[in-house]
Amino acid sequence: MIAKIERDSGRFRQIIRGKIKKELKKYIVRGELIGRKGKDLISIPLPQLDIPTFRYGHQGRAGVGQGEGEEGTPLAPGPVEHGEGAGEMPGDHILEVDITLEELAKLLGEELELPNIEPRGKKHITSQKEKYTGISHAGPESLRHFKRTYKEALKRQLISGSYDYKNPRIVPIREDKRYRSWDVTKEPESNAVIIYMMDVSGSMGDEQKDIVRIESFWIDTWLRSQYEGIETRYIIHDAVAREVDRETFYHTRESGGTKISSAYQLCSQLINKEYSPEDWNIYPFHFSDGDNWGGGDTKICIEVLEKYLLPKINLFCYGQVESPYGSGEFKRDLDYYFSDWENLVTSHIPDREGVYDSIKQFLGKGK
Amino acid sequence: MNLTAELESLKAEIEEYAASYGLNFFPIVFQILDFDQMNEVASYGGFPTRYPHWRFGMEYENLQKSYTYGLQKIYEMVVNNDPCYAYLLECNNIVDQKIVMTHVYAHSDFFKNNQWFQYTNRKMMDEIANHATRVIKYIEKEGQDVVEDFIDCCLSLENLIDYHSPFIQRKEKKSKYDFQEEEPGETVKKLRSKDYMDSFINPKEFLEEQKKRLEEEKVRKKKFPDEPEKCVLTFLIENAPLEKWQQDILSIIKEESYYFAPQGQTKIMNEGWATYWHSKIMTEKCLRDPELIDYADHHAGTLGMRPGRINPYKIGVELFRDIEDRWNKGRFGKEYEECDNLIQRKNWDKKLGLGQQKSFEVRKIYNDIGFIDTFLTEDFCRDQKLFTYQYNEKTNTYEIASRDFREIKIQLLFSLTNLGQPFIYVIDGNYENRGEIYLKHKHEGIDLKLDYAQATLANIYKIWERPVHIETIVAEKGKLFTFDGKKHDKHDIKIG
Questions:
Q1: B453 contact A CB<8A
Q2: Which of A247, B21, B151, B223 lies most in the core, judged by the most C-beta atoms within 10 Å?
Q3: CA torsion, points B75, B81, B82, B83, in degrees to nearest 10?
Q4: A190-363 belongs to which CATH class?
Q5: Domain count within chain B
Q6: What is the pLDDT of residue B320?
Q7: Which member of B386, B392, B453 has the closest CB to residue A54?
């Protein structure tokens, strides 16, 4: 006999996955488990089905709390939602959890059923590592092994009869001295670099950038769990591209047109200069709203991708964030030209909710 | 699993302490559960079984997940029943079990003596098991999807009950042999006057108006329900065209809703009372020296504050302690209230020693609204660092809005009134003489969440099978929302 609760939770899971009772799907709210890691809030999806009732709307989001703080002190972030506000009080569906990034990556992997990444060229890439493995008779004084040296001197003095138990002075001579010694070993190593590129032209609004921020945080977390050394580089572009630091990456807004090829070219230069494919696993990510300049720029993009980028990298991901202005043309073009290439993935991100699916599309291939 | 010998003797010990303090409780049956079982029972609201429905599964998934990530674990659960059922977690250490047991005895005392619980079914364990059996029977006959869909509809209306109705006879019971003669229609009475003055004393317009008023009154009298009905569930059970099994399921939902309502109405008091007593019994009687640190740790966890929400344990226990202190020292009444000498006020102690007596009286007659309304003082608000918060749309955050005593009290009372739910009444079950149902939202300054309101209307339609209307106010304008089975409509209306 199955437990009663299994019967009910099985039913619930089927509804959430949209297998049965599709009309309920619109009441799925993503409850969240929120964790804190430094300044970043980490949230773990906890799907909920909310049965509609007569309840108060967004003006009802007020209440009484307890604790320190002046008037105007912020307490908790408001709910992320669309349209009419939910009546939930803060904390109603937010559970906080302390979690390490490693655990988080594990959760993410489980939640999205991500496969582990098989690093490329692992066999060829090696690095030298020094390790203390033994003891030797010669070496620098700074590495002298005190205990061993003392023992040797004691042994020698006992044997030679020069040990006086009334005056137990042990004086090591050169032959007594022992030193730590090391070996040089060759270890396979996998390094990875993530190159984030983002369209910062006028049509990418704050909401779109927020989505990119959330998504790149998760990608970072996942890739960090898979590789030992990760470097991240940031490129922003409108009609021209430039490399920037992380802060600038997320907060710049330009008003120019969009030439995606500029970013791809810069990315290619960066790889040529600093990240040889023999030594590095390379992950370029590009986010835009899908609007590219006419006049054949898309053609240049495709050329750069085909000739210079795709042969060198592990995986190229293009995320198209929906914005009120974007035409979405670019994703169609990529999908059309690169349907045969395994290491180019595109994904459409309609809103914040879409981030989870998009991550799965990007990283689900285990590349 | 039944209690181990050790726990059994602890139980006897604690029961004696509790009784010696004057607590008067139902007999208590403790059961030991492991985590999975605990989460299962918790998902069912403390009952070992409920009717099949996905929302219990949802609750279970959440509890399991939260537990896996180390977010929360359930320590204590107790069912209002005679005997009381309570659950202990298998892996807890002995001091935790002691805390839970003492806590549970106080809950049981509260269930038994607080007047808001007096009409709850004390054999609910059996009743709820019966509900499950009946629903399963319907599922076998009608099919799972059909029954579950209907339950979804009912749950959507679960909060539309009249919390005070168990205590008040709202309408006279009518005998069906109690025929009433059609009363002769009232006529417009004229004021006495001399003929030549008549048109001045009884002007024609006035007479017309009166006549119209009488006619309206007559129409109103014919309306059903006679008075606006707050318990929408009762109205539907009595009047909607339901099949027998549907009627039964709706009654089940209603019965369970009324059963759980007093627990919602006394959350702060109930937890406060239980916390007050676990702390008293533990520190005065039960605690052994090596257990002190664990006890302090656990107790502090229970009372921990989190900004942005009120902890009923904390507010409850502090209020009970405040009441005890005030009545011990005589810090109440006109003389104390009017004293504005701060030093005198601070040292006020008439050595009345009425604290304990007052606490027991309070636990007998109040619910949370009365409790807060009567005993929340300005001093208390300040000492407990209470504040009101609000949602700031610009920053998409909740912010501390005020530390003003009046505002805190108003906000707190508002969130407790009608369990923080909007007031909805059935005004007319035969609207426009077309058998349509007309609901009214008594607007208390906050608009309804409209998409949910419309979805709820659609659910009522499934039960009523005729168009449904709800009158409400949106952005200070009167609106009538209608669902006719095919599409949603809204009209502007005048609000009187």
A1: yes
A2: B151
A3: -30
A4: alpha beta
A5: 3
A6: 97
A7: B453
